[in-house]
Amino acid sequence: MKRLTIATRASDLALWQAYYVRDRIEEAFSDVKVELNKITSNGDKVLDKPLALIGGKGHFTKELEDEMLAGNADIAVHSLKDVPSYMPDGLELGAITERQDQSDIFLSFKYESFHSLPKGAVVGTTSLRRRMQLLSVRPDLKVKDLRGNVNTRLRKLAEGQYDAIILAFIGLSRLDLLKDIPFTQKLPLNIMIPPMGQGALGIQIRSDDDEIRKIVKILNHEDTFLASQIEREFIGKIGAGCSAPVAVNATIDEVGLVTAKAMIGYPDGSKILQEQVASSKNSCKGLGLLLAELMIKKGAIKILKRAEEMAFKGDTPAERI
Length: 321
Hints:
It is globular, with a radius of gyration of 19 Å. The model is unreliable at 314-321 (pLDDT under 50). It has helices spanning 12-28, 42-45, 62-69, 128-137, 150-158, 169-174, 210-216, 222-238, 287-297, 300-311; strands at residues 2-9, 32-39, 75-79, 91-96, 104-108, 122-124, 142-144, 164-168, 183-186, 201-206, 246-252, 257-265, 272-280. It folds into three domains: 1-97 and 200-220, 3-Layer(aba) Sandwich (D-Maltodextrin-Binding Protein, domain 2), CATH 3.40.190; 104-186, 3-Layer(aba) Sandwich (D-Maltodextrin-Binding Protein, domain 2), CATH 3.40.190.10; 222-315 and 317-321, 2-Layer Sandwich (Double Stranded RNA Binding Domain). The longest helix is centred in the first third of the chain and has 17 residues, at 12-28. It is α/β, with parallel strands linked by helices and 321 residues long.
């Protein structure tokens, strides 16, 4: 019997995702036994600084990638939104699972909906993307950084440290954590465009392992892979890290029309640049690059540079680890 090792973060959500992949593989290949290599990433250890100040979401993937390159794991399972658009030499995305609900969700013990929040209400989020979009709609809100795993964030909400928090819907749903929150509201895309890859899992493999590549292909969803690659192309072209105030989303409708939309702006929501492109599924190669080029012509690089300066304002270089 062949043994296959998955590198995974040790958080509850990461383990749910790893067990999901394990079960899919073992159901498809009766001669494969899957084990987990549980790792605490740097992003899970450093909880006293905003994510953007510790290098962004790549800190959730590096340790897993190191384990793979060292031969201690055959695949790594990531939330695709945490996987930077660049890939270390020797590694690649072997599969992307079918994308589930991409929505961000409003959670509160006090207020029924996002629009019912009073002026000056404190809203928690780690994401500069969410901060940008929240403040572009409600500049009267006070957005406060929110770190920790899902359970820690929900505890902070219950303790009254925040009037509301914004998280990804799919993680809460997978862990069955919504039932104890009095007020929840999925935020529509006209309020909150998701980040690259939200709602899908990225299965990372070593580029030289053809046997593992064949195994993980059973997890791949063609349309999700295509849409995600458009999003990742866009991010790679404009040079935005996972934590930048950037939203990008590609969708494929029932007749094969591919639509990609993006938003870039300042973390305080004071300046927003938006663009959208569309193409048929058969001719959508390079659509992410096209979207990026259109936004670059409109000043996206300058906006991103200023957005980074605003995000790090008041922090010394020594703190930007």
